[in-house]
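Changelog excerpt

This revision adds worked examples to the README so contributors can see how folded entries look when concatenated. The first example is reproduced verbatim below.
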Amino acid sequence: MQRSALFLLLLMLSWCVMTITHEMGHIIVGWAGGGTLTKVDLAPWRLPFSIFSPDPHPLCTLWGGPILGVAMPLFVAAIAQRNWTWLIAFFCLLANGVYLAASWISADQFLDTTKLLEHGAHPATIAAYCTATIGPGYWGLRRACIHYFTNDT
């Protein structure tokens, strides 16, 4: 019972890490590209967002979220070398890929994929990102979950 409760907390932490690193990716790249951040909300219990005005390089800013949103957790997991950090990192990998795929299907004007396409991203780059993240993210998360429930560490 205690392991299951801790696992639920770990999943909640994974969600928070995913939403914050994804949005921080937009913010870091937006600032690096000379954008002016005018509004931001990082609360993980609703969809976080950041608005730049002006944003001289919107395509770079938009790609910053999904790219740094997986790179930062994977970097931390590679350094920490703990199963629970890999679980979080693979959750982020899977969630970022699923987010871009789902927002592509929904075509919601406020979600990243629609904005990526509006600003000139080729659909093949989005498909490649989804392919590169969803499969490895699923298998890595699955392996980390099995390890979590079958080992004493």
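The second example, added in the same revision:
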Amino acid sequence: MNQLCKLLIKYCVLLIFGVLPLTHVRADLQLQFDTTYDTNGFFSQSANQAALLAAGSYFGQRITDSLSAISPGGPNSWTVNFDNPQTGSNASIANLSVPADTLVIFVGARDLGGSTVGQAGPGGWNVPGSASPAFANTVETRGQGDTRSPDAVDFGPWGGFLSLDVDTTWHTDVNSLPASGTVDMFSVLLHEIGHILGFGTSDSWNEQVSGTTFSGANAGTQTLTADGAHWQNGTMSTVFELGGAQEAAMDPSIDFGSRKLFTNLDMAGLQDIGWQVQAVPEPSSMLFVGLCVGLCAVGRRFVCSS
């Protein structure tokens, strides 16, 4: 795989946030964004790339799970499958190597149609019977225990895909307020990565859903949308780490000119999926900007989907 196509979060966190010296970067979970399928160069544009890296680093600093590496070789082969983020058609790659504590996310942009501004989800996989049971278990769980129904209590994907809409008028600067008439790319990226992390897409999520009700030890009892993949539209919570009321990031829509960070409810949902979450002691001033926007945003609503 072309190494130039890989945008590594670990070494970019504080270039985006500018909070601490580079030697103090903490990135427990690494999100490795792969632009192999981004043939129109959407994420080659510096502003779009910066927003992508900022969204990845947001989760990288707050999720502390240890994921096993997937290292194919010899009889231990496998194939990943996912939606091509550029076209929406099926894509597959044989013997993808996934480093420890890393998710590989294939990114791109296309016309998603209607009011949909983003789509994402975890990828699938296939392991032949000739592979060792230990290798097959690593692919399935990443060392995270039971990840399959009916006993799923955790989630350990290899990664997935993420598509943004090419026709949306995007606000890309993570350090400024989204203007009226624009959709905040950072907020949409957070939401879509949430789906890759299992919101509405993992067995451990589905095991806690009955109809349109989610019941989790951390998130409590919450009403979901009809697709079972989002909190009910308009669900309110408190911004994680910063406080202040905000509509949950993982409800299905976002307004023009608004920034939505993950709330306590959204983080509780991640914990119920099986992720280990911790707060950052001194979150960036960029997040305070996001809080201010979230409190005053009004306007047309756009759909984020899994």
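Reviewer comment on example two: The radius of gyration is 18 Å. The helical segments are 13-17, 46-60, 133-141, 185-196, 203-206, 264-273, 285-296.
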